């Protein structure tokens, strides 16, 4: 009878191990599938996607982040977030944590800095994520807006040049309709 109970216990244990192994394999497959989906999505993004630990160390950076900031693949991993922002390291985390405490997510403009110390204008959208094991991560989407800022600067310069030109050429201009003067500028009103 004891041998029979041992055999039943052994059979039950083997069945439990088989079921547990099957469940673990299915969970591992799901995790692997989610990881592949995440990797595919993050690789398609043209904006930088950076995930940092609660202390500000870069945990993940997609290829766009590597390219934007001039680093080789995976070279950003482990570096402090302050490495890509043109803010002194001692001030960075204090300001970053403050922004996260005051808002669920934030969208701010910053100066970024590349590996070669080139300045970038960047827009950053960030939120926090807390995992099931209570670990906190910062999720950042970063867009390089340097070209847009340069375009706005050039547009303002052109506007200033046009304004200066139009003021200089319109000093003696008047608008008229056939025999009637409709409008004239200040210079002509003194003549």
Detailed description of the structure:
- The chain is an alpha+beta fold.
- It has five helices and seven strands; from the N terminus they run αββααβββαββα.
- The chain has helices spanning 2-44, 63-69, 89-102, 146-169, 186-189, and strands at residues 48-53, 58-61, 105-113, 119-130, 136-144, 174-177, 180-184.
- The protein has a five-stranded antiparallel sheet. Strands 6-7 form a two-stranded antiparallel ribbon.
- Strand 4 and strand 5 form a beta hairpin.
- The termini are far apart.
- The model has no long low-confidence stretch (mean pLDDT 81).
Q: What is the fold's blueprint, element by element?
A:
Elements: H1 2-44, E1 48-53, E2 58-61, H2 63-69, H3 89-102, E3 105-113, E4 119-130, E5 136-144, H4 146-169, E6 174-177, E7 180-184, H5 186-189
Antiparallel strand pairs: 1-2, 1-5, 3-4, 4-5, 6-7
In short:
By secondary structure, the chain is an alpha+beta fold. The protein is 48% helix and 26% strand.
Strand arrangement in the largest pleated sheet: 2-1-5-4-3
SS field, number of helical segments:
5
Query: How much of the sequence is in beta strands?
Result: 25-35%
- Estimate the helix proportion, in percent: 40-55%
Could you report the average pLDDT, rounded to the nearest whole number? Answer: 81
Low-pLDDT runs of 5+ residues are: none
Report the end-to-end length measured between terminal Cα atoms: 127 Å
Q: Rough shape?
A: elongated
Number of strands: 7
SSE succession: HEEHHEEEHEEH
Backbone structural class:
alpha+beta
Largest sheet: 5 strands, antiparallel
Radius of gyration: 31 Å
